[in-house]
Amino acid sequence: QVQLQESGPGLVKPSQTLSLTCTVSGGSISSGSYYWSWIRQPAGKGLEWIGRIYTSGSTNYNPSLKSRVTISVDTSKNQFSLKLSSVTAADTAVYYCARFLVVEYYFDYWGQGTLVTVSS
Amino acid sequence: QSALTQPRSVSGSPGQSVTISCTGTSSDVGGYNYVSWYQQHPGKAPKLMIYDVSKRPSGVPDRFSGSKSGNTASLTISGLQAEDEADYYCCSYAGSYTLDVFGTGTKVTVL
Q1: What three-state secondary structure class fits B89?
Q2: Pairing relation of β-strands B100-102 and A114-118?
Q3: What are the pLDDT digits (tens) for B25-38?
Q4: Is A30 helix (H, G, I), strand (E, B) or coil?
Q5: Distance between CA B96 and CA A34 in Å, rounded?
Q6: Do B101 and A49 touch (CB under 8 A)?
Q7: pLDDT tens digit string along A93-117?
Q8: Does B67 touch chain A if contact means CB atoms closer than 8 Å?
Q9: In b/e form, how buried is each residue of B14-32, taking b as 16+ CB within 10 angstroms?
Q10: Which residues on chain A are in Cβ contact (under 8 Å) with B89?
Q11: Partners of residue A6 in chain B, C-beta under 8 Å
Q12: How far apart are CA A49 and CA A36, in angstroms?
């Protein structure tokens, strides 16, 4: 059973960089046709796709966040990471990591989510 | 790319059927058969319920079904049960630039 777990600071100051890591267990991040993705959800609001990375290192980002987002992968640690720069209060949200199945086109496994608050 | 449009809420009594719409454009919902639906209970991660418009993953009850007509996809829950009370989100491929876009979300209430 594949499991994903987000980790990182729960509080980030405005203008700084938000950094989160997703650790994958129960399977290799390098195997299969998957994109490893980040999605966020502000309190009481809907889901927003942030971006994704293939194990080759190929990335895709939400155009509205592209200038501030970097997603990377560390196959030796079975982890992938999110960096979001120049954060504001609008970036306060629960951040989820998820596995995306390329062939069938859906998110099949999700992390439990981690709340990141942007505040001074 | 704007979020796909869903009704804010729908409700029904146990045993009834409810349908949630997900309206997009010819650039997303109408252009591809890559619509998926996710159920989210409070404080929990989303769970896949339907993919590729109408396919149901193993373990999802067959009272959940999906369809699409033009630029609008729909999720129908037949024989509504108390545990179906949750938020539901659609998601669609939106082309090689935008990629994936979620719906605004619908709260299903079991009366």
Answers
A1: strand
A2: unpaired
A3: 999 999 999 999 99
A4: coil
A5: 17
A6: yes
A7: 999 999 999 888 899 999 999 999 9
A8: no
A9: eeeebebbbbbbebbbbeb
A10: 46-47
A11: none
A12: 12
